[in-house]
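Each field is set out underneath.
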Amino acid sequence: MISFVCRLIERHFLLLAIALSLAAFVQPVLFVWMKAYIAVSLGIIMFGMGLTLEFSDFEAAVRNYKAVGMGVLLQYTVMPLLAVGISALLGLPQDALIGMVVVGACPGGTASNVIAHLARANVALSVTMTLISTCLAPVLTPLIIYLLLNQQIEIPFLPMVKSVFWIVVFPLVDGLVLRRLLKQRLDQLLHIFPSISILIISMLVACIIGLNRDMLASFPLLVFIAVALHNLGGLGAGYGAGRLSGFNHRDSLTMAIEVGMQNSGLGVALATKYFGIASALPGALFSLWHNISGIFIANRNRAVSSGGEHEGKS
């Protein structure tokens, strides 16, 4: 029975996310309570990831330094430049332009690791890229914003590193250690964790919609188009660069997810603090959109992977 429910959840990932999102738009109170538990929820997902990984996966990711380096490079070049180019092309107002640049200058976020996990991409590679881009963010994010906007901002290094440690590293390592210690006993339970991750990420997307319902009701179409193009451009650049560099589909997909999905929460916080609430709009929309596009990618890749597995067995 449990296996059937898990398969049902995995098969209808996108439908579940859409249904919860619609419910959140109609009745935000059903999901906004999760705001206080976002970090804990992401930690639970990261713990589940750790249970499915081995330490050797991270050794392989570190050895694949070319993919890591390219992913981080694209993160801090393609995304800021795309932000400027798309804003100019669509003629966005100054506040929206600023918000786009701020989001584009941010590192990869934890959501990219979750989507990589759900899409059956290279999770160890995704986490490695996120850690490196986050550690570089206190230097590179303000520098990029200064070069493009001529505005100085400051990002405290230690709080950012602590946040990534407690949300990403700590639960992930816990899962890795527990898997090593109790491998045979855990093997029978591992199949439920993808379904748990799907439920949590679907509820988190619904929470984001509930928290931003009033803004979404006004539907700033031009900014939404800019944000969608920004995200899709990053996804395409990451995947295309990976394939052109000779990486396989799995690593190229990982690079696409990592480049295209920004730490939009940081972008919203920086835009609000240094430029005003109007500049936070692109970050808020990005937070919603990159999860939706990520869920679509994860759902599609899981379906393709499952189809390949079934063909291989037949």
Observations:
- The CA atoms of residues 96 and 301 lie 33 Å apart.
- DSSP finds 16 helices and no strands in the chain.
- The chain has a mean pLDDT of 85.
